[in-house]
Design goal:
Number of helices: 17
Distance between the termini: 36 Å
Helix content: 55-70%
Strand content: 5-15%
Radius of gyration: 24 Å
Oligomer: single chain
Largest sheet: 2 strands, antiparallel
Length: 459
């Protein structure tokens, strides 16, 4: 059977009621991807809203006789097949190497849900287009709401901290809005920003709104990785557009102008913020006036000097250090990631280097660095996949991203190049592979060109 990627995005003849329910569920999936903060405990597992809604959508498509065919055809798409192989490999290596199948089950189930989500979003062309429109419409509001939450929380010193988390290392409130954490909030922002600012035919007012709002949202998240990832993605898009499109140079420059404007505002904003105030982690030493009783004293007969007394951060009176301006590979969160990678490397040898240690097993063997009693987690995608699935698993992951790029329509290749470059850098320093937004973005990237996009290509 000859395969055409376009057949994955069917346009079946649906009744008004079926179309309304289907598109409503797809819209609900997109909305739920912004609600990572909300979950509930069911049978000992934390079940998230963004996991439940895709299951409802997949069940609806499987049950409905007209949609079932589209769903099954999408399941045979090369991207779905490669990701399915990745999921199966994770199951195999978990059965062989995991010290606790229960400890691995939550992530394995999440991977299966992601596969169902991806296939459901690829089944109906109109559904992927709806998802794209909703994602683009979210950019400026998502950024501005985050900045408002950040500003209010820090100005009130935590008295009003809705939609924020307190960063205990830098003693600053960071925006997460309804995402699970600031890193994920920022990742959602930059990926939808990339898809929006690189869209053909984007208007001046929309460009201006994004150029103003997105830097503010990134400041609110205090996430350095997101800033670098967005600039990298925009840069790759610009270079790819200039040297790959078959059009006049004037048309190419017109195509990259909105991205260039956003790069300029990001660089200027980041430069100003990075130069303002203290950028190191907050000072933990006690002031000189601290009572001696509060100090930690060494035994009288010990030659070991007493450890330096430290204070406990006070969320109601934080130092509010400038986290986004701190780029330090020795300490801070970057140093923390390096320490996690060093510990993970202890089990990456021999057969485990090739086949892995089992899905989500790092926390079963290690505590979080600097946090005794808390299970560790690897927050860097390549390291996590190498630890969980070995070189075989990492190879399947690389093949997945290559397959995505190959299957993207030619006219959308520059956008795909920028988005994938941004995603790979961001995922190297954060862990958002499992979240719904990843699979929504892939489905949106792979969708066939709309008539509007084809018309713009003819201009």
């Amino acid at each position: 059977m000859t395969f055409s990627p376009a057949t994955a995005y069917a346009r079946p003849s649906l009744t008004g009621r079926t179309r309304l329910i289907t598109l409503g569920l797809i819209a609900a999936v997109v909305v739920s991807s912004f609600l990572g903060r909300y979950d509930a405990e069911i049978a000992g597992f934390r079940v998230r809203v963004e996991q439940v809604v895709p299951l409802v959508l997949a069940a609806w498509m499987i049950v409905h006789p007209v949609l079932r065919g589209a769903f099954l055809r999408a399941l045979r798409h090369p991207v779905a097949l490669v990701y399915g192989a990745f999921v199966i490999w994770n199951v195999v290596t978990t059965l062989v190497f995991s010290p606790s199948l229960t400890g691995s089950a939550s992530i394995l189930i999440w991977l299966v849900i992601d596969l169902l989500l991806l296939v459901s979003m690829m089944a109906i062309a109109e559904g992927a287009e709806v998802a794209a429109r909703l994602g683009r419409a979210s950019v400026a509001p998502w950024a501005l709401v985050g900045f408002a939450a950040y500003a209010v929380a820090n100005l009130t010193r935590g008295q009003i901290a809705l939609g924020t988390d307190f960063d205990w290392l830098y003693e600053v409130y960071v925006a997460r809005v309804t995402a699970i954490e600031a890193n994920i909030y920022a990742s959602i922002l930059i990926f939808w920003t990339l898809l929006t600012i690189t869209r053909r035919g984007i208007g001046r007012w929309e460009t201006a709104a994004i150029a103003v709002a997105v830097p503010l949202g990134l400041i609110a998240s205090q996430t350095r990785t997101a800033v670098f990832s967005l600039v990298l993605g925009l840069g790759v898009f610009v270079v790819f557009t200039l040297f790959s499109l078959r059009s006049s140079w004037r048309e190419r420059f017109t195509r990259i102008l909105p991205a260039g404007i956003l790069i300029a505002t990001l660089v200027v904003t980041y430069g100003i913020i990075a130069a303002m105030g203290g950028t190191a982690p907050a000072d933990r030493t006690l002031p000189a006036t601290t009572s001696p009783a509060a100090s930690v004293m060494a035994p009288a007969d010990s030659s070991t000097p007493a450890p330096a007394p430290t204070r406990v951060p006070d969320p109601t009176n934080p130092e509010q250090q400038n986290k986004i301006g701190d780029v330090d590979f020795q300490g801070g969160t970057i140093g923390f990631r390096l320490e996690v990678a060093r510990r993970a490397a202890q089990e990456m040898h021999g057969v485990n280097l090739w086949l892995g240690n089992g899905t989500n097993t790092f926390g079963l063997r290690h505590e979080q660095p600097g946090t005794p009693g808390v299970s560790g987690h690897i927050i860097m995608l390549p390291v996590q996949v190498l630890y969980d699935g070995g070189i075989v698993g990492l190879g399947l992951l690389a093949l997945l991203f290559v397959t995505v790029f190959v299957c993207v329509p030619r006219e959308r290749k520059p956008v795909a190049a920028g988005l994938l470059a941004s995603y790979l850098l961001s995922a190297t320093l954060t862990s958002m592979f499992w979240f719904a937004v990843t699979w929504i973005l892939i489905a949106v990237l792979l969708r066939p060109l709309t008539e509007g996009e084809r018309d713009l290509d003819r201009v």
